Amino acid sequence: MKVVLIGYRGTGKTTVGKMIARRLSLPFLDTDALIEERAGMPVPAIFASAGEATFRSLEREVIAGLADFRGVIATGGGAVLDPENVRVLRKGGTVVLLEASAGEVITRTAGSDRPPLTGLPPEDEVRALLHRRRPFYLAAADICVRTGGRRPDMVADDVVSRLSGRRDPVSLPAGFALPPGEAERLDAPDPATGLYGIAGHPALHSRSPLLYNALFARYGMDASYTFFDHPDFAAVLGAARSLGVRGLSVTIPYKEAALAAADEADRHAAAIGAANTLVLCGDHVRASNTDWVGVRRPLEGVAAERAVVLGAGGAAAAAVYALQSLGYRVTVLARDAGKAEILAARFGCEAGSLSDFGSVRPEVVVHATPVGMAGDPHSLLAPEDLGPGMTVFDLVYTPKETPLLRTATARGCRTIPGTEMFVYQACEQFLHMTGIRVDDRTVREVLGE
Ligand code: NAP
């Protein structure tokens, strides 16, 4: 068994870790102590003589040797900001986040000799770093444990009981659709510790379970990803909470509801008005959006200024956000010009109806409606709308070559299929949900792209 304790300094990782190790008869080690041994000096002296970057590289070297360690590991407060450390720590391990509020950390660390990491006054530093690190802690954790108002032995008892108590078979309430064989897979005698899933309706066509389960196996994570397909989002979130789900990918029609239900959201989800990712930690839900990254990444190498987004729904909002982040002047065109105007007004861009396309003459077109999906032979643009020098990105990804992309290729445009968006949003979402950075090549390999 490998148990990894993460969290800010002052959350009791070392004290609690030693107690857990004693209760489970496991060896204990502290990554800061290993770093001090390797450097031949205490942590404050490493910071003073060589700086934080040297400390972080020593920390990475030390953690790299812990992939196959069996025992309890207490980590430094910044260790899981490095996705490579998370990959090693997660391999064959259960990661436990010890949480404490800024006030509790400030009280507990008063008089500590640990070096400052910012130029801020100590109390402001704690608040700022806790805020900045929180998404990394939530992503890297399998189990979240509050330490406020509890003695270390109580926290250790809680962790030990949760380490053994999470392994009940997973059974979804009535009303949830599952593909054939999935209920039996979930009912396995030794279910995984970490449960994740796709929330949507319908969701059974999703390729995310295939992708995530393959990635969990690749990274040695004791985790499983399944379907949360139900007509009521409240039922989805209720089931996720009662089953201790760690992360949900969110698809149609729940992206807006997911954002509204979350306790906190990253700035991208808040600006787009939709979340495709929820990370759960106890009762707390954090929302984020990675769809926009899926639109942005494939366009990063394109040198252009003027873009059109076709459609005014959730994917269109993510596309406008992504294009603006790249400095594009964007026009939203939709069959309902009123809806295009509402979306455009949120982002301060231009709007019109589909028939206005010819007058805009964009260099980049992002298509964000379902037209052309799964056997639909239609395209919103006519061949004469398209020409060489244009880049056409169709967010529809089934089929890979849509009628729009076929026409665009024939007219000499550069084309980008919707599978590219899927690949890049998935890389980013895996990072948000697990703290591990996966590259697009690995995701393509798993998906057979
Ligand atoms: P949505 O919120 O339901 O929005 C759909 C948009 O398409 C709305 O503006 C809708 O207009 C418009 N539309 C629907 N049918 C149309 C038609 N026949 N002609 C013209 N416009 C039409 O859906 P979404 O979440 O934005 O998703 C849109 C598409 O993006 C999906 O179908 C999916 O293929 C794709 N997508 C791809 C990925 C990926 O990873 N590649 C991720 C997310 C989405 P009205 O409001 O007038 O109905």
Describe the structure in your own words.
There is one protein chain. The protein is an alpha/beta fold and 449 residues long. The chain folds into three domains: 2-164, P-loop containing nucleotide triphosphate hydrolases (Rossmann fold); 182-289, 3-Layer(aba) Sandwich (Rossmann fold); 302-422, NAD(P)-binding Rossmann-like Domain (Rossmann fold), CATH 3.40.50. Helix content is 44%, strand content 18%. The chain is globular, with a radius of gyration of 24 Å. The mean pLDDT is 94. The site of NADP nicotinamide-adenine-dinucleotide phosphate (NAP) has 26 residues, from α14, α15 and α19.
Q: Topology, please?
A:
Blueprint: E1 2-6, H1 13-24, E2 28-30, H2 31-39, H3 43-50, H4 52-64, E3 71-74, H5 83-90, E4 93-99, H6 102-109, H7 122-140, E5 143-146, H8 152-165, H9 182-186, E6 194-200, H10 208-218, E7 223-229, H11 233-242, E8 247-250, H12 255-261, E9 264-265, H13 267-272, E10 277-281, E11 284-288, H14 291-299, E12 306-310, H15 314-325, E13 329-334, H16 337-347, E14 350-353, H17 357-360, E15 364-367, E16 391-394, H18 403-410, E17 414-416, H19 418-434, H20 440-447
Parallel strand pairs: 1-3, 1-4, 2-3, 4-5, 6-7, 6-8, 9-11, 12-13, 12-15, 13-14, 15-16, 16-17
Antiparallel strand pairs: 8-10, 10-11
Helix pairs in contact: 1-8, 2-4, 3-4, 7-19, 14-15, 14-19
Bound molecules: NADP nicotinamide-adenine-dinucleotide phosphate.
